[in-house]
Design goal:
Blueprint: E1 5-7, E2 21-22, E3 30-31, H1 34-39, H2 41-48, H3 78-82, E4 97-99, H4 106-111, H5 116-132, E5 135-138, H6 144-159, E6 164-165, H7 178-181, E7 185-189, H8 197-214, E8 227-231, E9 233-239, E10 243-248, E11 257-264, E12 277-279, E13 288-290, E14 296-301, E15 308-313, E16 316-326, H9 327-345
Helix pairs in contact: 5-8, 6-8
GO biological process, one term: cellular response to hypoxia
Region (Disordered): 42-99
Cofactor: L-ascorbate
Length: 350
């Protein structure tokens, strides 16, 4: 994995220095010292379970946690909705999901300037790191020139007012509370919209990598999935001012998402700029802090194996996220939704 991935940070001051000690209650948080743990306690106890005995040992059952993940079932992208009808490049597809198998073949990738050696090296990293760590970080993914073109397209979307406040799945979360949960502005794009061709090229490359990794001879855990679908690309901007996204799981309820792929576009990022993605791998005593560096690509499992959060961003932070879905789990999820809708809409009889 990349040297830019740092483990074991103090939950209070975010320092990586010195000998950090694990919280004995939740086994997920680390602290420089007892003082920092005490200062962070009011905030931390909400996530760790608090109390004398810690989480999981209450006599009374806690209510289910609200789903704070990003909804992916929009029938039309926010970008298309924001454009006048004369400018909108609407696809004949109304689904929010696209077939990964429509991605580029090796010849098309080579014509785009991506050689087989480059592709094979990244493919090996994805397969190895997802199986070993559940997380894969690739620096200098497309090269500075291509990354600049993508960043310019993202900034153009922002300047034209195409971004809107990010939402969460849970209806338990009131509108006024959403800004406290996630502070990003987003747009869903296909890459086929006007002036989004470079974003489209990024997604095509990632499609090809994920599809090949899924069928790789050493796929390991990747072979447990039949990755057929992906979402639109979610362009996200955290506009500074300590905007963040609280700890959550992308796919807590089996909606089909199995791999989260994030591309970062933050030039000259420094530690003081904030906006670090912190991942808490399930069952491990380490925390991964992913710096949102320019031209960095990140892959990780989307389910409960990887709870994560975006720490407060001090300056504008850009990223593009695509989720890849397992066909079987997605079909089962849609069947559950259909059954729930049918049972809740049936008329009652006297």
């Amino acid at each position: 994995m990349s040297n830019g991935v740092n483990f074991r940070v103090c939950a209070h001051c975010h320092s990586r220095d010195g000998e950090l000690r694990m919280c004995s209650r939740c086994k997920n948080a680390w602290y420089c010292n007892k003082d920092h743990q005490m200062q962070h306690w009011q905030q931390h106890k909400q996530g760790s379970g608090g109390g004398r005995h810690g989480g999981g040992r209450y006599r009374r059952r806690s209510p289910p946690e609200p789903d704070l993940s990003t909804p992916i079932d929009s029938s039309i992208s926010s970008l298309e909705a924001s454009l006048p009808s004369s400018q909108s490049h609407r696809s004949s597809k109304t689904s929010a999901l696209f077939d990964v198998r429509d991605g580029a073949d090796s010849q098309t990738l080579e014509e785009g300037g991506f050689n087989e050696e480059w592709f094979a090296g990244i493919l090996e990293s994805i397969v190895r790191d997802l199986n070993q760590y559940g997380v894969c970080v690739i620096d200098d993914f497309l090269g500075a020139e291509r990354a600049d073109h993508i960043l310019n397209e993202v900034k153009a979307l922002e300047s034209h007012g195409a971004l809107e406040a990010g939402q969460v799945v849970s209806r338990q979360v009131q509108d006024q509370a959403r800004g406290m949960i996630r502070g990003d502005q987003i747009a869903w794009v296909t890459g086929g919209e006007p002036h989004c061709s470079c974003i489209g090229q990024l997604v095509t490359v990632v499609d090809s990598l994920v599809a090949k990794a899924n069928k790789h001879q050493d796929a390991g855990m990747l072979a447990n999935y039949n990755i057929t679908w992906r979402t639109r690309a979610m362009v996200a901007c955290y506009p500074g001012r300590d905007t963040h996204y609280v700890k959550h799981v992308d796919n807590p309820n089996g909606d089909g998402r199995c791999i989260t792929a994030i591309y970062y576009l933050n030039r000259d990022w420094s530690e003081d700029d904030g906006g670090v993605l912190r991942i808490y791998p399930e069952g491990k005593d380490q925390v991964a802090s992913i710096e949102p560096l320019f031209d960095r690509m990140l892959f990780f499992w989307s389910d409960r194996r990887n709870p994560h959060e975006v720490l407060p961003a001090k300056i504008t932070r850009y990223a593009i996220t695509v989720w890849y879905l397992d066909q079987k789990e997605r079909n089962e999820y849609l069947a559950r939704l259909a059954h729930h809708q049918m049972t809740t809409t049936q008329p009652t009889h006297a």
